[in-house]
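Reminder to self: keep the SMILES exactly as supplied, no canonicalising. Ligand is coenzyme A.
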Amino acid sequence: MDDYQVRPAVEQDLDAIVALWKEFMKHQTGIDPRLKVRADGEPHFRTWAAEALSLPRRTIFVAHSPSGELVGYTLVIIASNPPVFEPAEYGYIQDAFVLESFRGKGIGWKLTQAALAWFKEQGLAHAMLHVLDKNERGIAFWRQAGFDSFLHNRRLELI
Ligand SMILES: CC(C)(COP(=O)(O)OP(=O)(O)OC[C@H]1O[C@@H](n2cnc3c(N)ncnc32)[C@H](O)[C@@H]1OP(=O)(O)O)[C@@H](O)C(=O)NCCC(=O)NCCS
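Structure tokens returned for the bound complex:
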């Protein structure tokens, strides 16, 4: 696991991050086809990820092999609560992904620790994320990482 290091993403990583995101989306939509990626999802994600490299309220950490190949990433943001809840802001883990053949080596753990450390540096008191109900491995991973069950999302098809 020490062979794989985590660092903040830089502009030169963008193509590789978009490629990882595409694999992440394949994984997520394969778990639950009700989750659908828009035809123009990729360019939107690219813009969003590019902004994360410069905007103060988003950031991306990447995991790389000794030769520099990117094998995983996490994209995290500072999210705002509606103005009736405390605290005003919290850390939100939007994406977390490790290529299948590199899973189970502690890479997701390292990415998550980097994200949580960044949240703490920003003065945030808690972190949140969404995980698909059918993503058993993801649910187990987040539980191991210390995330409690909190909100339960419900969905009803109308058409
Ligand atoms: C979820 C995901 C990011 C986890 O990444 P990973 O690299 O496979 O996970 P890790 O190898 O870091 O963690 C695996 C295990 O080691 C534990 N672990 C790893 N390093 C550790 C450390 N230093 N200390 C304590 N526990 C550690 C993890 O908690 C976990 O425990 P378990 O195997 O006993 O359940 C990865 O499986 C993935 O990309 N899945 C597909 C996409 C996905 O579902 N993402 C989440 C969407 S919400």
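Points to follow up:
Residues 24, 27, 96-98, 103-109, 129, 131, 135, 137-138, 140-141, 144-145 surround coenzyme A (CB under 6 Å).
The two ends are 47 Å apart (CA to CA).
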